[in-house]
Amino acid sequence: MKIQLGALAALLLMFVTTGQAQQPAPLITNVEGRHTIDLNGWWQTIIDPYETGYYDYRYLPSTDGYFKNAKPKSPSDLVEYDFDTSAQKNPSTTVRRSKPAFLSTSAPRTTWLMCT
User: Which of 23, 84, 99, 102 keeps 20 to 30 A from 9, CA to CA?
Assistant: First the structure.
């Protein structure tokens, strides 16, 4: 009798939890009538494994991150990245054709992209 009650309780619990599943998000409507931007093409990429392109040493948003795309004005300026000479990636290609640097999963990283 105890086994039957346990099985009945488990079955009831399964039905109760599946009945409360989340509803799917509503679909986007009128896609043809919306302004769209084509993102195909080549993108300059910088792999940022330590997220130094956004955060400063206090882990606060930096005022001069990679998103500024800064250029050194003099040889003493400390700009350690350059989108112009960085690797290029075509996001429409498959993952198998990507360069090994894009496939590395050894550490969390941010990939900065700039459309060329």
Answer: 23
